[in-house]
Design goal:
Blueprint lengths: L2 H4 L25 H16 L9 H15 L8 H7 L6 H6 L4 H24 L11 E3 L11 H20 L5 H20 L3 H14 L6 E3 L1 H10 L5 E2 L2 E6 L2 E7 L4 H5 L7 E7 L6 E2 L5 H8 L6 E7 L10 E6 L1 E2 L8 E9 L2 E10 L7 H5 L8 H14 L4 E5 L8 H8 L6 E8 L4 E6 L10 E5 L6 H11 L4 E4 L7 E7 L13 E10 L15 E2 L35 H17 L1 H17 L3 E3 L2 H21 L9 H4 L6 H13 L4 H18 L1 H13 L8
Parallel strand pairs: 12-13, 13-16, 16-17, 17-20
Antiparallel strand pairs: 1-21, 2-19, 3-10, 4-5, 5-6, 6-7, 6-8, 8-9, 11-12, 14-15, 14-19, 18-19
Helix pairs in contact: 2-9, 3-9, 6-7, 6-8, 7-8, 15-16, 17-22, 17-23
Length: about 725
């Protein structure tokens, strides 16, 4: 997801004054191959895209804004005068693209490189100056919505505070002054080095992506290098850690963790975490990667199987100067069987009766062995086959209800989303697909009967996308089960890869690929999964607001729309049961200590998320660190994770650097029961009870509608 983030270059600082000379940028110009590629891409994007696209002044304006955002998202390099001078291109980039004229894109970028070199020279010079951390001032680290700096003096002040904050962050980790200076000077030198090493292919990719994403966020141009990385990321034999990287401000961030990969098995690296440094082996030097291009960070992390890569990480739930963690992960292959569905049993206690057994099937991805299926191998692996087998095993254990866990499932095979739905409905349509010409086709379950007819819940979160949303929406529309969790990602579009080399002369260099949106999914009720996602029937607490995540947060995302409903017959009306089950859940949430802690964590996260600046007073920052650590220790004791329960060798880590302490903490946290999964099982157990006792359901529903504001139902 969010492939546009993978293509963003955010370069923070870069040097000029140091003893070690740094290569200076050269003026870059487009090549004939790039002019040819832009001509092809323009024709495809304006004629083949699912969205009706006009290459006009309005799109030209969006391209310019997107290009400046790609180059300088935090408004830390360009001056207001620079941006004003670029206004002459605002209404003309459409005409330039028609004539394969890339000069405006290269002119803007050459100004950008000059500004980066100037800023880095200033930043490195600031390292020679003493800083006074008793002065009460703020550093605005998020300038994405701020005005462009009016002149060099204003930009100098922004960068003075930026460098001061960099120094303070390292000072708070108790680094020596000389080590701080060396670390930051090396960081700034690397940043300048990375920009002067860019070539015309890189500039072309930035500009063509500004063009593509001015149309729609899942459309992208992939340079030959990016095409290779994309193909590797889609391969199950990838040797690495199994994580999708993106860009968040100056940081490379973890967009998602690949199910079954080394990072997912390790459990410490999560979506939203930010990378500070990467090291090779257990003792190799940690290389600062703040401000690096994402594909360069990918190159550092990727490596041979059974080798170790070390990542210095800022976890999502800590502020920008929060304690970092160093995670060592052994690289390995991401294999199909490691992404396969898995099952477990949860016993839900009942007063005076035997516990109810609720089955759980964890489905990380919708997978299918296409080759095995095409060759008609009797033992080929697929999501549907594996889930059918697991349901049979759970039935033999005597389950009364079932939870399908699709959290963090980013999708996969459309065929498997359709056939898996067929395990829970008798027969009928599952999803409708409309192509760019407006033709609607329907994917249907034609296999009669169900593998599971009992109470069912589908557990989702904001990272459940695409095929996951198709399955959850179908279960919801048919009334076959309850959808629980967060509003899903909202990706309801289909992309195809076009290899531009297929349209180029055979002897020409590779010119890359286009990933272009060609179709859109629709539910059987006619609504789209696009943008809105699947809204759960019972909503769990979550950090932030739904509109800040997923498709809804992406610029130029296609809007929600609808078509005619397909002909389908709902299995049941769960309205009354859902109302009572939700009310019971709300009562538990109000009295459950774990939910209280969760809501407290969410409150702290939301508070930090809304901050756009930090204090540059050392005393304030140290007090904030102490408060954070005190809250962490208090929470551990409340949850029973008392240090007396930690093995003696882990206790010794408390005197070590922050990364080791955090590592010991993460092991404790990953061993805790999954609160949301446990509560999902409780909700299904309520459905079992209410479904088997119609009188009880009628009684509780009657009380509910008579007293909707009451605290409990006895």
């Amino acid at each position: 997801m969010k492939l546009q983030k993978i293509l963003i270059l955010l370069l923070l600082a870069a040097p000029a004054w140091a003893v070690v000379p740094v290569e200076q940028p050269v003026t870059l110009k487009p090549s004939m191959e790039q002019r040819f590629a832009s001509n092809l891409a323009t024709k495809f994007l304006t004629n083949w895209h699912y969205k009706d696209t006009q290459l006009d002044d309005r799109l030209s304006s969006d391209i310019l804004d997107g290009y400046l955002q790609l180059l300088d998202p935090n408004r830390s390099y360009f001056l207001a005068a620079d941006v004003e001078s670029f206004e002459r291109f605002r209404g003309g980039l459409d005409d330039a693209l028609r004539h394969s004229d890339l000069a405006p894109a290269f002119e803007i970028f050459n100004v950008y490189t000059d500004r980066v070199v100037s800023r880095v020279a200033y930043a490195r010079n600031q390292l020679k100056q003493p800083f006074d951390f008793t002065v009460d001032e703020q550093y605005e680290f998020d300038r994405s919505e701020s005005d462009w700096a009016r002149d060099s003096a204003e930009l100098d002040e922004i960068w003075r505070k930026r460098v001061k904050n960099d120094v303070l962050r390292l000072k708070l980790t108790d680094k020596e002054e000389q080590a701080i200076t060396e670390t930051l000077d090396e960081r700034y030198q690397n940043l300048q080095r990375r920009i002067v090493e860019l070539n015309s292919d890189d500039i072309f990719q930035f500009f063509m992506n500004a063009f593509a994403q001015a149309i729609e966020p899942h459309t992208a141009y992939l340079s030959p290098r990016s095409s290779e990385n994309f193909e590797i990321s889609m391969s199950l034999s990838l040797e690495g850690i199994g994580a999708l990287l993106g860009r968040e401000s100056e940081y490379t961030s973890i967009q998602s963790v690949v199910p079954g990969g080394p990072a997912e098995k390790d459990g410490r690296l999560k979506a939203g975490d930010r990378l500070l440094a990467v090291g090779q082996g257990r003792d190799g030097k940690l290389v600062d990667v703040i401000g690096w291009r994402v594909d360069d960070v990918v190159d550092l992390i990727r490596g041979p199987k059974d080798t170790v890569v070390r990542l210095e990480v800022l976890h999502e739930d800590v502020g920008i100067d929060g304690p970092s963690t160093v995670i060592d992960i052994v690289r390995n292959e991401v294999k199909l069987e490691e992404q396969a569905a898995k099952s477990e049993l949860i016993e839900v206690p009942r007063e005076g009766e035997e516990p109810l057994k609720i089955g759980v099937i964890d489905l990380p991805v919708f997978y299918l062995d296409f080759n095995g299926r095409a060759m008609n191998r009797p033992d080929y692996r697929s999501t549907t086959r594996d889930v059918r087998r697991l349901i049979g095993e759970l039935k033999s254990e005597g389950i009364s209800g079932l939870v399908i866990d699709l959290r963090n499932n980013g999708g996969g095979s459309l065929l498997e989303a359709t056939t898996l739905t067929g395990l829970f409905i008798d027969q009928g349509p599952v999803v409708q697909v409309r192509n760019s010409s407006g033709r609607v086709s329907t994917e249907e379950d034609t296999d009669p009967g169900m593998a599971w007819e009992g109470p069912l819940a589908v557990l989702v979160n904001r990272y459940s996308a695409s095929a996951s949303e198709i399955f959850a929406a179908a279960i919801q529309d048919y009334g076959r089960g309850v959808v629980i969790g967060e509003t899903t990602f909202g990706k309801g579009t289909v992309q195809s890869l076009l290899d531009l080399d297929d349209y180029a002369p055979t002897d020409s260099p590779s010119i890359g690929q286009l990933k272009i949106t060609m179709a859109q999914f629709f539910r059987v009720n006619g609504g789209s999964t696009q943008n809105k996602g699947v809204v759960p029937d019972i909503t769990f607490p979550s950090a932030g607001e739904p509109q800040e995540h997923g498709e809804r947060s992406l610029t130029n995302a296609l809007p929600w729309t609808s078509i005619d409903a397909a002909e389908y017959k709902p299995a049941d009306d769960l309205g009354r049961m859902l109302a009572v089950a939700d009310f019971r859940y709300q009562n538990r949430k109000a009295t459950d200590q774990e939910f209280e802690w969760l809501l407290s964590d969410i409150g702290e996260y939301n508070k930090e998320r809304d901050q756009m600046s930090v204090s540059l007073l050392e005393t304030v920052r140290r007090d904030e660190m102490k408060d954070h650590e005190a809250r962490r220790k208090a929470r551990k004791q409340q949850r029973g994770d008392d240090e007396s329960l930690v093995p003696e060798d882990e206790l010794a880590m408390d005197s070590e650097p922050e990364e080791d302490t955090s590592e010991a903490e993460s092991e404790t946290e990953t061993s805790r029961p999954d609160l949301l999964l446990r509560e999902s099982a409780r909700i299904v157990a309520d459905m079992v009870e209410l479904g088997s006792d119609g009188q009880l359901l009628a009684q509780e529903f009657s009380l509910l509608i008579k007293a909707p504001e009451s605290g409990t139902i006895n």
